[in-house]
UniProtKB/TrEMBL annotation:
This is Copper type II ascorbate-dependent monooxygenase C-terminal domain-containing protein. Pfam families: Cu2_monoox_C, Cu2_monooxygen. It comes from the Eukaryota. Keywords: Disulfide bond, Glycoprotein. GO terms for molecular function: copper ion binding; dopamine beta-monooxygenase activity. GO terms for cellular component: extracellular space; secretory granule membrane. It comes from Adineta steineri. Residues 109-227 form the Copper type II ascorbate-dependent monooxygenase C-terminal domain. Residues 1-77 form the Copper type II ascorbate-dependent monooxygenase N-terminal domain. One of its GO terms (biological process) is dopamine catabolic process.
Amino acid sequence: MFECNPTVVFHDNNLPDGECDDIYRQIQECAGNIATGWGVGGEKIVEFPEIAGYPVGGDFEIKYYMVQMHYNNPKKMSNRRDSSGIRFYLGNELRQHDLGYLTLGTDSNAQFPKSGITVTTAFPHTHLQGSSLWTKIIRDKKAVDYLLNGESYDFNYQFENRFPKPVQLYPGDEFATRCTYNTMNKNEITLGGERTKDEMCLHMFTYYPRMNHFYSYINANSEKAWKQVMNATDPLEDYMKFQQLLRDLKWTPESVRKWQEFYDNAPRLLIGGRAGSYTLEELPEITRIY
């Protein structure tokens, strides 16, 4: 479930509804700020720590939310119905801190308040090919500890990892998130994307006190790097054409070496903030973790 940008305006009697790809332009202000989430195999009840809770109503700025459901029906079976949903329980007493969600992907840095933040849970997420996932805390350019080390990841058993002891993060901390995939059971390329057969690499954390100015820090290879490796001069705006170029690649030991070198050295674009007001920062290359 996502929070919509507080500046977005909808008509309450005609809210966007339908398949995400068909209404993307209408919901793009609601597609980046996580309010809560659940994955296959997750627990039925998610409890927040006694000291913090998710804010609702009052002077809280969020009015609209979007529930996004993902379905996977590769055999295209008919007459399949879904009766799942989300139920929230409201507390009678206001808790000391407001709780927020922070999503990290690959290399990240964040502008934490002077007092820092306290992280209570971690929710790692890849798709079917993911086999492990971890996030390390980097201080003074050195990895000091794991924020979470998911050595054995299973898409069919996703749940929030509750820390036995909350983890404190401080201004200046940086993060490196890495995912390991196993595609030995496939004979075609795996693309990045939201479909179950595609892949992603995200790590979501609950923390307090809540920061309203950003929800995520993720990155992607720069368009310039893609153009260079694909030997293309036109902008890569036609995503379907771009996908087909990747599917048509011929894999040889030499091409494997080339693409690994591309991944290791390609400039990155760091995307951070919240839906509607993301900031972009160029990174020369992926961070080396020691």
